[in-house]
Structure formats: C-alpha cells, structure tokens
What does this fold into?
Amino acid sequence: MSKAVFGSALVLLTILATCRSAVRFPSHVGGELPNGGKIWVLLVAGSSGYENYRHQADVCHSYQVVHEHGIPDEQIVVMMYDDIANNRMNPTPGIIINQPNGSDVYGGVPKDYTKKEVTPELFLSLLTGESQLGQGADSGKLIDSGPNDHVFVYFSDHGAEGLIAFPSEELYADDLISAIETMHSANRYGKLVFYLESCESGSMFKKLPDDINVFATTASSPYESSYAVYYDDTYQAYLGDEYSVNWMQNSDAANFDSESLEIQFKTVKNVTVQSTPHQYGNLSIGSLPLADFQGQGSSTGIKANQQPAAVTDSVSSRDVPIAILKKKIAAATSREVKQALQKQLMKVVKERTFVNRTVRAIVKEVVSTKDEVSALMTGHTSAWDNFADYKDVVRYFSKKCFSLAKNSHALNFAQVFANVVNYGIEPSVVKAAMDKICTHPTVEGIN
It folds into this structure.
C-alpha cells in the first residue's frame, strides 16, 4: 500500500472513529432487547358502540406509539370491536382521531381480533399462550413470549370494583391476576407492564403480587371513576380518556432511551386532574426506560403531525351517554331535533332511575333497617375481602338484572354487592332477592 493510500485510509478511520464516539447508538433495535429478548404488545379496547368511540381511539393511538417506535406487527396483538371507523355516525369514514383536529390513528392498525372475538377468555388465552382459542380467528396471533422477553399490555374500557368490561361479558380481577401468575410460573416473560384505563381500575391490581416482575399503572384509584375528554361537535363523541391521552401524548414526545416508566407515571399523574392514577406490583421496574416496553427512539408519525392538545371537557366515563345528549341538545338548531334529543335524554334518565330503584329494592330484601340499606348503598368496601362470593353475586346480577358489559350505569352498583357480601349476607340470599325483584328482561342498553 502506498503512503498516500495508507494516509487516506488512516484519515477515514479517524473520521469514522470520531463520529462513532460522538453518536449515541440506541440500545434497542425495534422490538428487540439488549439481552436478545423481544418486546411483545397486547392492546385491547373492551367496548363496542359509537358512544364509546374513545376506547378504540385510545387503542389505535397506542398502536401508533409502539409501531412508530419500531415494534413489528408480528409482536403486536390488537383486540377491538372495530365498529367505529366505518360507523354511519363517523363523519370521516375510515378515520379515527384521539384529540381535536388530530391525525388519523386508525390507519395501519392490525385487526387481529374483532367483533365477537373480543372476549375475556380469548384475552387471557393470548397472554397465557393457549393457542387453540385463537385458531380460526382473524389472525391467530399470540403473545408468544419467553423468559427473556418483555410484555406491554394496554386496556381501555369501562370497569367497576374488581372487574373490567368486554363487549358481552366481564373480566374479574382474580382471573386476571391468576393468568399473570400462570404466565410467570411458565416463564412467559421477564418483565410485564400493564396500563389500565377504566373506572375503579385500581381495584384490579390491589392484590397484584410484588414478586412476579409486574408493574401496573391505572387511570384511577379503586374507588374513582376515570374520565372521558375531548368532546368534538363534529364527531359527536368524546375522542379520548384523560389518563390514556396523557400517557400517549407523553410517549409521542418522549425520548424512550432516557425517560423511565416511573417518570412517565409521575408526569401523567401530575396532569391527570379528575382521577388519581395509581401504581402497583414491583415498583422497581419503574426505573427502566420506556424503550424496554414501548419501543426504541423517537416517534416520526403522530408526533411529527400534531402537537398535544390541552385536555378539555372532562366528564366521568359513567356519565358520557348523558353528557353527549346534553351537548347535542345545546347544539341543535331545529326544534324537532331538539325535542327528539330531549326525549332520548328523558328515556336515559328514566332507565337510570329504574336501575337505582331496582338495586335498592334488592338491598332492602336482604337487610332489615333503613340505616343498613343506606350503609350498603353508599359504602366502599373491597371486593377482595370476599372475592369468590362477590363474583358469584355480581355475575348473577349481570345475567339476571342488568348486563354490566352493556349497561354502563349498572356498573356503578357492583360496589354495592361488595358491601353486601362483606356484611355477611350469603350469595344464595342475595340471588334469591334478585330473582324476586328482577322480573324484567335483562337490560343491556348502554345508558
């Protein structure tokens, strides 16, 4: 080699070395971890119906977060009813947004499990690896994770004391915890992170062990509602949920290599003003970077196309149907339309009053005094104090009286039955009272 060529090569090597030392190379590539493991993601919207637009919008946005940070679709599973994007009420067919004037979050989202496949049974089977339940479904994809892998789960829907709702039935906290423990025993993850959006979501993780490498954050405490936000007059729907849009807007702007789960939790808690986000499980996992669970690097899609919107129009998730009708009435320009909407509102109020009276009548059947009725109707005891009896009674109530999966107002009263069984009243007595009082067909309408 000539001196000139050697000198040129030496200069080139020096430049490359200088560039290498000046650039911080990411510790992750897409959905891979430094230890050779993978990042697996399970995203679930548990509701159906246009009134619940926000839950699917949340989940679609969460997909964009992890997809844009390099996690391949092969490692992402999405469950949602998929009846919003092309709903006749959607003014922008094929498009879903998660904030006012926001970018489309629906485009590219995998429809792995939709419609009747969105069930608690399939959700748990995807986590635990019972592949036979996925056969013949939309995609058959599973969370095929192992001992070196990380799993990130995000769920958005209605909830109540010790349960979260799916389109046609409920998932109870003891079954969720049991499934996670099964995963841990089978070495199906190294670490698992669960973000949960629902009313009373903290009640789902009150008994989450702190020694199975799981870190969970929730939209609310065990005794609070979560809140819908961003009502849009054009869409006539709430576009997101407060806790959810806060964590996703944070992720849209964050450096995933330097921001930790704990920093994200504290940031979200500080800006979530209507409810109180909580954290559970192995809190030391919170020191790990977002990159370990949501992907690597910076977003190039949602982040580049929009700025975070200030959270507005907060309303308790349980009151969304009434709030939407009131906003439609206020915006109506036709007397006929206004009267029709007012009639709908009166019907919803009447239905809610019927639920209230029915539950109170059931309680009156099982206790003797007005003071006892008042205490059981308004108290806040934990379902975990007697979970087997609680689940037995609530399941029967959902089947016999009001479907908890399809009647958002009825979810308010799951807490009453925790109080009832914790008061020492046998499930058989409570169910007999339901048989006597609930002579009407089971009410399933969302109200």
